[in-house]
Amino acid sequence: MGVKILKGLNLLDVKEKKIDEGIDIVIEGGIIKEIGKNIEDMKYRDAERLDLSGKYLLPGLINSHVHLFLDGSVNVMASLQEDAGVKLLKAANFAYDFLKSGVTTVRDLGGVNYLDLSLREAINRGIIDGPRYLVSGKPIVMTGGHGYFFAREADGPDEVRKAARENLKKGVDVLKFMATGGVLTPGVEPGSPQLTYEEMKAGIEEAHKAGKKAAAHAQGNEGIKNAIRAGIDSIEHGIFLDDEAISMMIDRGTYLVPTLSAGYLIAEEGKEAGIPAYTVEKSKRVMDPYYKSFRLACERGAKIAFGTDAGTPLNFHGPVTLEMKLMVKHGLKVWDAIRAATIVAAELLGMDDKIGSVEVGKFADLVVLDGNPLEDLDVFTIPNLVMKDGDIY
Predict the structure, then answer these.
(1) Which of 157, 301, 309, 329 measures 20 to 30 Å from 116, CA to CA?
(2) Are 188 and 182 in contact (CB under 8 A)?
(3) % of the chain exceeding 90 in pLDDT
(4) What does DSSP assign to residue 193?
(5) Strand 103-108 vs strand 255-257: parallel, antiparallel, or unpaired?
(6) Closest CA to 260 of 191, 331, 186
(7) Residue 187 host element (H or E)
(8) CA–CA distance from 344 to each of 133, 206, 307 (Å)?
């Protein structure tokens, strides 16, 4: 792997929230080696040079909530019943869709029958091209709870603890718990609490003992608070937040991953697309409190990390433009939306020493845009250049 020099870029410094103009980046062995202006070419005589004058450089984007084994179809149950080999091949294509759209790291919060571990292995071994891929295996859910049809059902603290240990034995990167009901599961209310405080506490303890993070699907306020008290690292969705819940999150350093586009697409386009009526009705019912909760979290200064819930109906894998726009429309400043998809998400994943910002010594995961994203979020849709580990895709 030779030396590459990217020249003349406008670098978005996501830590300091500023743009440095006319920057050159030297990459060697997949690592950022040097950053500066007018770097002396004679130091790197054999380097490959790319003139990107006037383009905008960001760290590779991080989507911290996806489902690569869901395909965005209107019938989730039908897609889950596809042949395992077909599901795996489709997921591999979805992984590449993310990579070429500038997303160089994804966290999958609900695979199918541990196929996500096989996909991670294929990416890590270079068999296929894809982003850095963190996996959770089977979500842990109460019997009959949200997503039970592709999850590990468990009841009581001991059984949840065992389920957590099973996933950890498989080699997952993160544990996923269902703290509340959700929109997609028939007969389940989004706001209703599901796994109890005691159950989640047992499972989260196992995650943390193993040095792993724990995430909770948590939409209703009571279930959100149960998860926070139990020590969860991130609240996924957070539809019905109140002041107390947000204060608890701020006090404990708990992250919010809002995934606004998932509900938006079902509510706005679901009826015409043929999504089941019960799903559309539930989505329409929750969107106003969803936006209100997100705005309150923004105003209070909660930690917000980026995630799209890609794979849910009409929510396809790839560009992150819609989620960016919704976050900005409903309360987040543009700089903070970009930070949510870079350095803040990297902190949530515990990987901010390696990814999330353009700094010497970090992985050369980079995305180059034709225009300034602070002025036009649509530039995220088709990147000029995407790099992971110093390789250009």
Answers:
(1) 157
(2) yes
(3) 92
(4) B
(5) unpaired
(6) 331
(7) none
(8) 17, 24, 11
